[in-house]
């Protein structure tokens, strides 16, 4: 448990209350602060895995907590974007699809794990995560981002749409693979 990658993973989770608070304060400084916290969270998501593999610091705790922390981190941001009106009500459709896929894949991994059936992360899933992370950065900034990058909202929602399409594709792929093992 006690190694840098695990500390980064736990730190990502501990940052969530502050991130949510900043996202709910409707001021420019809070939006920039939220973006900074979110960006740091995204960087530690990548760095903790890289450091764990490179320096052989992988642990059972890290293998369990890292994917859970990633899902909690993204789900929290998605729900907060609806709560603070940075996503309109119809924007909840991609959120529901993304969260549903995450529950589906987690359920598949939990169900098939004891049977020693693995569902490795695909390259398409990595692209999904990348599109999702960038989209949420734009959407966290909301109207405040329009000052710096005028198509801010359109870019954020466009990338969220791409992430949602990739989410459906990867979710279907995982589901098909799971169904093969049920027969």
| Helical residue percent band | over 70%
Based on the coordinates given, report the CATH architecture. Answer: Up-down Bundle
What's the SSE pattern? HHHHHHH
Which fold name fills CATH's third level, the topology? Four Helix Bundle (Hemerythrin (Met), subunit A)
**CATH homologous superfamily title:** CDP-alcohol phosphotransferase transmembrane (TM) domain
Strand content: under 5%
Structural class: mainly alpha
- Indicate the CATH class: Mainly Alpha
Query: Distance N terminus to C terminus?
Result: 38 Å
Rg is 17 Å
Mean pLDDT: 94
Q: Stretches where pLDDT falls below 50 for ≥5 residues?
A: none
Number of domains: 1
Structural notes for this entry:
This protein has 183 residues and is mostly helical. The protein has one domain (4-182): CDP-alcohol phosphotransferase transmembrane (TM) domain (Four Helix Bundle (Hemerythrin (Met), subunit A)). It is 80% helix and 0% strand.
In short:
The chain has 183 residues and is mainly alpha-helical. The protein is built from seven helices and no strands.
Topology:
Elements: H1 4-14, H2 16-24, H3 28-54, H4 60-83, H5 92-112, H6 123-145, H7 152-182
Helix pairs in contact: 1-3, 1-4, 2-3, 2-4, 3-6, 4-5, 4-6, 5-7, 6-7
Descriptors for this entry?
Four Helix Bundle (Hemerythrin (Met), subunit A), globular
């Amino acid at each position: 448990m006690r190694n840098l990658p695990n500390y980064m993973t736990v730190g990502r989770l501990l940052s969530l209350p502050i991130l949510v608070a900043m996202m709910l304060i409707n001021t420019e400084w809070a939006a920039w602060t939220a973006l900074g916290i979110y960006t740091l969270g995204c960087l530690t998501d990548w760095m903790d895995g890289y450091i764990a593999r490179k320096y052989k610091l992988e642990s059972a705790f890290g293998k369990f907590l890292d994917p859970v922390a990633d899902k909690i981190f993204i789900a929290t941001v998605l729900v907060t974007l609806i709560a603070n009106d940075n996503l309109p009500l119809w924007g909840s459709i991609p959120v529901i699809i993304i969260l549903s896929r995450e529950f589906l894949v987690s359920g598949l991994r939990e169900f098939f794990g004891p049977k020693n059936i693995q569902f490795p992360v695909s390259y398409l899933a990595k692209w999904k995560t990348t599109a999702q992370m960038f989209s949420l950065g734009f959407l966290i900034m909301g109207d405040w981002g329009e000052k710096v990058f005028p198509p801010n909202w359109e870019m954020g929602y466009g990338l969220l749409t791409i992430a949602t399409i990739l989410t459906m594709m990867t979710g279907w792929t995982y589901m098909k693979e799971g169904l093969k093992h049920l027969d």
